[in-house]
Design brief:
By secondary structure, this protein is an alpha/beta fold. The protein has a single domain, classed as P-loop containing nucleotide triphosphate hydrolases (Rossmann fold). Helix content is about 40%, strand content about 25%. It has helices at about 5-20, 25, 70-75, 100-105, 125-130, 140-150, 150-155, 165-175, 195-210, 220-230, 245-250, 255-260; strands spanning about 30-40, 45-55, 60-65, 85-90, 95, 110-115, 185, 215-220, 230-235, 240-245. The strands form two sheets. The chain has a six-stranded mixed beta sheet, sandwiched between helices. A four-stranded antiparallel beta sheet has the order 2-1-4-5, covered by helices on one side. Helix 5 (about 125-130) packs parallel to helix 8. Bound molecules: adenosine-5'-triphosphate and magnesium ion (MG). Adenosine-5'-triphosphate binds near residues 68 and 72. Magnesium ion binds near residues 70 and 71. Pfam families: ABC_tran. GO terms for molecular function: ATP binding; ATP hydrolysis activity; branched-chain amino acid transmembrane transporter activity. It comes from Roseospira visakhapatnamensis. Keywords: Amino-acid transport, ATP-binding, Nucleotide-binding, Transport.
């Protein structure tokens, strides 16, 4: 997919969001839906009936304390082997991800940016991006990614693993966008980064948002995630304890104290 088709998709998505939803559309299946997910690491029952739905172009902050099951939920959605999904459904743009393996979900447009970023050793920045484009369908061109992240363009011949933490995060996000992503899953994109770098990544994610990318962001920095997001889902002990607007969580200190410790 090229940028113009992405932009067309964004334009039609925002037009759709602006007008009142007629009854027939209200019944239409959501763009993304996780339904009653149950998943295990071996015998450990971790994801305990998680479910939520998203409209196309929405940004959802998936929050909760350490160990609440956020990473496990993202991994389940991306169909990684661990934790193992034993019950429930995952739908993206009408496709049943729950029947697929990770590589098939990736091909259909699930782009997981894991916490450890997984920059490939021995490859330059540019080669890391090119490698992402080996599997079709391709998303953004490498030039477009350098436009979004000028720092990556300046360092395109540098080995990826020698980038700073913030630059590695940019490369990890860029690599996801290099593929035809329909659902971007970001696991703690601000982790371990200095405040000034967090701001830089935030500005980039604002641009990604403007392009209408449907995104789930997991963050310990709940305020930053809620500022970016439209919606919030809070997990506690592997279950959804809140599903509402990001604004509601920002305005509700009690809720934040109870489940987020902020
Ligand atoms: N590979 C694994 N095997 C067994 N248990 C695991 C495994 N990975 C995670 N867990 C457990 O699953 C629970 C949820 O972990 P998860 O990583 O999903 O939490 P999280 O919400 O992402 O936490 P954090 O904010 O610390 O990243 C924790 O109790 C954790 O110990
Ligand atoms: Mg985690």
């Amino acid at each position: 997919m090229n940028a113009s088709t992405l932009k067309d998709r964004v334009a039609s998505a925002s037009v759709a969001a602006d007008r009142a939803t007629p009854a027939s559309e209200a019944d239409a299946p959501p763009y993304f839906q996780a339904r009653d997910l149950h998943a295990y690491y071996g015998e450990s029952y971790i994801v305990q009936g998680v479910g939520f739905a998203m409209r196309e172009g929405e940004i959802l902050a998936l929050l909760g304390r350490n160990g609440a099951g956020k990473t496990s939920t993202l991994r389940t959605i991306a169909r990684l082997a661990d934790p193992q999904l034993t019950q429930g459904e995952v739908w993206l743009a009408g496709q049943p991800l729950h029947r697929m393996k990770a590589y098939q979900a990736a091909r259909l447009g699930v782009g997981l940016v894991p916490e450890d970023r997984r920059i490939i050793q021995g490859l330059t920045v540019q080669q890391n991006l090119q490698l992402a484009q080996i599997a079709k369908p391709v998303g953004w061109s490498i030039e477009q990614i350098y436009e979004l992240f000028p720092r990556l363009g300046e360092r395109k011949t540098q080995e990826g693993t020698t980038l700073s933490g913030g630059e590695q995060q940019m490369l990890a996000i860029g690599r996801a966008l290099a593929r035809d992503v329909k659902l971007l899953l970001l696991d703690e994109p601000y982790e371990g980064l200095a405040p000034v770098i967090v701001q830089e990544i935030e500005r980039t994610l604002e641009k990604v948002r403007a392009l209408g990318m449907t995104t789930i962001i997991v963050e310990q920095n709940a305020i930053a995630a809620l500022t970016l997001a439209d919606r919030a889902v809070i997990l506690d002990m592997g279950e959804v304890v809140f599903d509402g607007s990001a604004r509601e969580v920002l305005d509700n200190a009690d809720l934040r104290h109870e489940y987020l410790a902020v």
